[in-house]
Amino acid sequence: MSEIKSLQPHDEFNRALESHVHPPDWVNPKPSGPYNLVVIGGGTAGLVAAAGAAGLGAKVALIERELLGGDCLNVGCVPSKALLSAAKYAAAVRGAGEFGVRVPEGVTVDFPAVMERMRKLRAGISPHDSAERFRKLGIDVFLGQGVFKDAHHVEVAGHTLEFRKAVIATGARAAAPPIRGLDDLDYLTNETLFSLTELPRRLAVIGTGPIGCEMAQAFARFGSEVLLIEAGNGILPKEEPDAARIVLKSLQQDGVRLLGGGKDLELAKSASGGICLRVQSPQLNYEETVDQVLIGVGRAPNVDGLGLENAGVEFSKKGVVVNDHLQTTCPHIYAAGDICSPFQFTHAADFMARIVIQNALFMGRSRVSALVIPWCTYTEPEIAHVGLYENEAADQGIAIETYTQPLDGVDRAILEGETEGFVRVHVKKGTDEIVGATIVAGHAGDLISQYTLAMTHGLGLKKIAGTIYPYPTQAEAIRKTGDAYNRTRLTPFVKKLFNWWLARSR
Fold this sequence. Notes:
The protein contains 15 helices and 23 strands. It has helices at 12-21, 44-55, 70-75, 77-94, 111-125, 131-136, 210-222, 241-253, 346-362, 390-395, 411-415, 444-456, 461-465, 476-488, 492-505; strands at residues 35-40, 60-64, 140-143, 146-150, 153-156, 159-168, 172-174, 202-206, 225-229, 257-259, 265-269, 275-280, 285-290, 292-295, 299-301, 315-316, 319-320, 333-335, 375-377, 382-387, 400-406, 422-428, 434-441. The strands form six sheets. Strands 1, 2, 3, 4, 5, 6 and 18 form a seven-stranded mixed sheet that branches. The protein has a five-stranded antiparallel sheet with strand order 19-20-23-22-21, with helices on both faces. Strands 10-9-8-14 form a four-stranded parallel sheet, with helices on one face.
């Protein structure tokens, strides 16, 4: 296991991680009789499905070929947020003078210590996803490659498991886009980035989605000279343009340089041992040399080697095909998480797994389309969103009204120096029914849950306006969108009626 790149360096913390999520001395159990549920894949979706089913009394087998915990624990959410937290402190110290706090000049980042802290914290979280924990939950944990032999049998490490129901939760992996010269180079992805022990002096980040923007900002704050390469549609192209502009401004203030020409990019080894990035097109011409390249775009579903065709499970380059109940083309085999979902988030995988438990084991009819799924990009400021964007509402023929509260009108944001941002909510025209919301703020990921709760349970902006928020908080911006809606109800006729009544009451 020490050969796995995500477990380098093989220090005490990565050894502890390994002992939990793929113990070198693990002995697979002997299968006995048919399982109610066989789960293939030990990432978020697989772990939630296995633990939930076992907790309800099902006989469960869990199969994982690499590291339990999947991307989230090992090469995704957990390590990346540890780095973002360290980067945020670095930026806060450098900006302390704006608050009248004097710090010594030349604040530097001890990058090896940052990475060691990440590995330590990741190892500390890993027991929750450990093989031993799931064994104690009554689950048969098998380490090895699971392969369908037919629609009711899976083979793993020389054992054949019989099942009544199964769930495919093998997730997705980093996949590089077709860039000229890339195959001839050693480059970083999210699966190798967190094994770095030295800070790259110059780092190119290719891809301006959430991963690219988050890591570009973090490494710039650590002290790298960062080039962020976009393909012609700016950064965070799926987000609202004014939200993306705020994040771009923040990235540039941290020293990130945005370069275009991603579609014409060519990479090559430089004479100095670095990597040369070259763009030569009628619109753009440049040549830059960096020490490392991070590919922050592209994912491929883990469908290879599973024997899906033996079980009659249809799949494509986009993943396993499922219906709204998460059934595959073999009705008693389900799928959940990144292997079948356009929403490649840990929390989406969690709730998809819950749907699988209901539908597979208890003849439920829960639908994945009924989920209200928020998401967040953890730059500073963060961008969080739930529901429809304005253009999506227009495409679906839904007439909306929009209410926006800038943070420069929120006292707590002013006092904290975080006025670059806003809270925006879309409602169906003529109603207070929330159909979408975007928040750009320091803790947007925490704030968006209020709109998610409202949308999930049918609460409108009137209810939000009638809710007392503590003062001063940035969450007041949410209540203020409710106030803005209420003001629209004061039509000229209603206002004239109020004036008449109040005049009579004097």
